[in-house]
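In pairs, describe these two lines:
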Amino acid sequence: MIKLRSLVGRTFQGTPPALQKTCKAMFAVAHFAANVLSARGALLSALAHFFERGDWGSAFETGAEGQRLTAEDQLFIFMQAGQYLTAARGLASSEARICYKRAESLCHSLDRPLSLHAALMGQWQHSLNTDTLPATMQIAQRLYSLANEQKNAALMTGACNALGITLFFLGDFETARRYLGQGLELWRSGGVPPLVEEVDVGAVSCLCYKAECDWHLGEIASSHATIVEAICLAKELNDRHGLAEALAEALASAASLGHSERNPAEVERCASELIELATRQNFATWRAVAAIYGGWARSASGDTAEGIASIENGISDYRAIGSMLCMPYYLTLKAEALHFAGHTFEALEAIKKAEALIERSDEREWCAELHRLRGVFLTTIGADETQIEASFCAAVSTAKQQKSVSLEKRAEATYAEYRRKKASASGGRGFRLPLG
């Protein structure tokens, strides 16, 4: 904020009368940014002064001697705008991506590798939420190459985080955990200074996704311990630096693990904390995610009507801000809630939509569970046994291929229960299986 005040003073001090109208217009843009876009209050309002006609890709130039923004100033402004636009408009903000792309070109011309890392991280985050995972992996690999070139532990920590998370969503849990573990080792070793525009947020992400990898790989106790560490670190960072975004991510990961373990009370607790935090901080993405988790928890606890409505509203809000990451997973939560309410045909439709999204994005971390749930739903409606068998076999084989011990055990247990009930059904076709 101090640097922003300095830039405002240098840029507009002694503004000639001919520029007064332009300045007033820029303050109107600031008002729009703060109030219409709900854009992080005073900070983003101040930043809006430095962009032409609200175009986040065009830095303002007065043309007056001594009032032009230097390349260094522009880099600072683009990086700051990228951060606050991401927080206000969501992780899929196209405006933030524009800012990070402009920042990248400035980093190359100014030879600023640390800032380049931050600009690429911003692009990676946008790609993760909107693009295919192979495209996202290309950015993660650029981050890793940059860290190797610079021989910089802080950059390597961030690069390992990006690679690990991308691999997680591709369903390669073992390799993902290896990269996440490497990033955590560097961070825990000490001597890793905060990255430009970051204060150890990468460590929280590494912990969150390592916890989820641990769960998949069957190391449940380690998973619990790691997510507790992630939440504790996130709360500490929020207290010291106001990094509520890290706490939101940790709460969402804890809710995900609670769902994986069929613990509605834990999911409800995490969702309640997350929605309170997201509402207070105006985090568009996390507010939508909290509604989805809260809806699943209510559905699993018997309040299916309100639960389904909350999930549908959350998914609608999530789509409205352009995010696609985790959508196949969120659709499985919706499918489960519909099944709880007895709407199994609609649940199958949700599964079909999730599978179509997977084909587009290559997001495969929950594929085994999609196959298993399809088998459960097909069993309930008395579908053809060949389809049911194929679904359960696909669930087991996918889990084995991904080395997800937890999902493999769940799929095998459901398949065994199906065979047991089928044998004792005396010719009856439709019967219910536990979701597991």
The radius of gyration is 24 Å.
